Amino acid sequence: MITQAALARRLTTIALAAALAAGLAASGRPALGQGGAIRIGAVFAVTGPASSLGKPEKDTAAMLAAQLAASGGVAGRPVQIITYDSETDPTKAVLLMKKAVTEDGVAAVVGGTTSPESQPMADYAMSAEIPFMSVAASTTLSVPARAWVFQMPQRNDVAAATAMQYLVALRVTTFAFLYRNDDFGQDGLVGFRTYARQRGMTVVDTEPFAATDTDLSAQVARARIKNPQAMVVWSTPPTAAIAAKNIRQLGMPVPILESHGIANRAFIQLAGPAAEGVVFPAGKLLVAGKLPAGDPQKALLERYARDFEAANKYAANTFGGHAYDGITMLLDAFRHVGPDKAGVREYLEHLRGFVGTGGVFAMSPQNHNGLSTKDMVLVVIKNGAWDIWR
């Protein structure tokens, strides 16, 4: 039985330095003792349609593995991060997770780059009773809460609520909704329909598309007929960029609002001039340098971005940040309770005030995401760069 005092001690907020370097080797807390390596499975879409998300996730894991090796691991025990490539295939993702658990002996798993991958992985986590740190955003991954599943990105419903602030500010009353026809896009549609009703807005057209589509001009043309005041696109690159290009190519001068799934340079590179002026909700990582000095995330965000770029020679983005949050949250749990799966699950479920790249997490038994609209900002693309929309 955990006493209130013991639980309170467990829930101390840690910063990056305490989590990785000095804190891992000399935190001042009682060591858990010597032992074999603690293993973390990391299943990311390193290749396939979602590779622009999965590659920075994999590169973040490699960066953290190097930092852990240099710092001596966690409480005197080495930590191995074993990375697997799902190829953006949900079936392969869950099979790799099973391999990680049953053959490679991992204590927890981070991954599921896309929502279609994370859903079966979450189901397996429940049956295998192993902590799973999902890096996908579908609301249904953690609503209702599932005992062994924790979600690192801001959920779709939180992102949709943040995105709607843009439409409200523009006094938009009608919009069309283009979405990737899978768990991620369908979940976004549910959120937007709900918030639109609450604000007296009308969704005049909904247009699904496949993640592998290479042209969305037919969907855009159908939406244009309805004369919407704004176009909302809920996807990730490359289709998110294709949609923006087709909207501009068909001469629609209306605002384009996209999802938090475009929070990486791949969108700007693929969309080209069509990216200019696009607004989307995101965590604060992309605009860390523009945050006020007192923001609780600023120092960690700037440190992560600096370390990532030094290690990988390209800019950090939101998706690598999700992997960072999942891995460092597990490291914090290992420092306190060791690699005991049940102990890790219980620790994470009560973790509050954890400063990550996605926000300041406040987990509870009822909320295994722990983020809200206060952890997001509206970002606008200006001159090929990120800025805070005002």
UniProtKB/TrEMBL annotation:
CDD domains, A to Z: PBP1_ABC_RPA1789-like
InterPro entries (UniProt xref): BCAA_transport, Leu-bd, Leu_Ile_Val-bd, Peripla_BP_I
Keywords: Amino-acid transport, Signal, Transport
Domain Leucine-binding protein intervals: 38-384
Signal peptide range in chain numbering: 1-17
Transmembrane segments: none
GO biological process terms on file: amino acid transport
Family of the protein in this entry: Belongs to the leucine-binding protein family.
Protein name: ABC transporter substrate-binding protein
Record organism: Candidatus Segetimicrobium genomatis
